[in-house]
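haha ok so turns out i had the wrong file open the whole time. this is the CORRECT one, sorry everyone. sequence first:
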Amino acid sequence: MEKINAIVKKWGNSFGIILPKEIIKTQELKEGSNIELIIHSKNKTKVKDIFGILKGKIKRDTADLLKEVDRDFE
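then structure:
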């Protein structure tokens, strides 16, 4: 398993990514190869961004909630 950063690009009505040549070589990929992708977007909304909606409805300490949510997204 290897980790890469890729930029999503629009292709017609779809989106796609380009795999670097080194990954294709080391993973011995060929046209039609079946691969598994794990998507981790860097643009996720954090609880602290929407906390105002929940203000007064949660009885736990805000700092503890933020730590728990951040830990789940790591």
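The first helix runs from residue 21 to 26.
again sry for the mixup
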